[in-house]
Amino acid sequence: MKRSALERRTPLTARTKLKAGSPLKSSSALKRTAFPSSTLRLQSPSPSFKTSTGLRTNPKPKPTVDDVLRWTIMREIGCIACLLNHAYGFSTAPISDGNPLEIQHNLSGGFRIGHSDTVCLCHFHHQAKRLPDPTLGYLVQAKMYGPSFGKELRRFRELYGTEAEQLSRQNELIDRLQRPEGASYSAAADSLSVS
After folding, report:
1. Would you give the distance in Å from CA 27 to the centre of its chain?
2. Could you say which DSSP state residue 28 is in?
3. Separation between Cα atoms, residue 125 and residue 102, nearest integer Å
4. Do 32 and 81 form a contact (C-beta atoms < 8 A)?
5. Across residues 169-195, what is the average pLDDT?
6. Which CATH number among 3.30.40, 3.30.300, 3.40.1800, 3.90.660 corresponds to the domain 65-174?
7. What is the pLDDT of residues 73-114, one digit of tens each?
8. Which end of the chain is flanked by fewer CB atoms within 10 Å, N or C?
9. Per DSSP, what are the bridge partners of residue 112?
10. Rounded distance, CA 163 to CA 118, Å?
11. In 3D, which of 116, 92, 104, 114 has the Cα closest to residue 162?
């Protein structure tokens, strides 16, 4: 803060009435209160916690074993947008450490609906913060692989459908894959219909 060159018209007054040279009260003069041990109770942690903005939120529920199994199957199927790219003339985004498969939770009013309302997208189609080819910009890669949910939401929904349509496609693929051991996931993914 910049100091003003203006002078004060009234002198500052002390808030405490201490006289110069007077000793402070010693700590033994302060009254100490003893609490019986029965009144001191450790409170259990609250189910909500404070965020950096001071708002209280409830913690997110942990995924169940069924949810984790569903996510594993979804990752084996692959990115829903990449599967639809073949029908729209785009190429498939390469899956690598820089572009892993991610689980996208559908939202309602800005909050997650639940762990069962999820679709699998590669990082490029989900957020596109790290691009598959770092030497090219996003717009060049969007022409090759299609739009990203995080960067071009409206275009993404026009091309791949709303979140509800993506969820129904994902569930359709998972239902098709409830089959005997040894069958390929790619066979069911190849039969994905575009409507």
Report:
1. 51
2. G
3. 9
4. no
5. 64
6. 3.30.40
7. 888 888 899 888 888 888 888 887 778 888 888 888 777 788
8. N
9. 107
10. 9
11. 104
CA torsion 140-143-144-147 (nearest 10°) is 110
Radius of gyration (Cα) for the chain, nearest Å? 30
For residue 7, the one-letter residue type is: E
**The tokens of 59 are what?**
């913690």
Q: How far apart are CA 71 and CA 52, in angstroms?
A: 30
Q: Hey, what are 91's tokens? A: 């190429």
| pTM for the model | 0.60
> Which candidate, 167, 169, 165, 162, places its Cα nearest to that of 115?
167
AA letter at 69: L
Distant-in-sequence, close-in-space partners of 80: CB < 8 Å, separation ≥ 6: 119, 120, 121, 160, 166, 169, 170
How far apart are alpha carbons 148 and 155 in whole angstroms?
8
In tens, the pLDDT along 9-40 reads 776 666 666 666 666 555 554 555 555 555 44
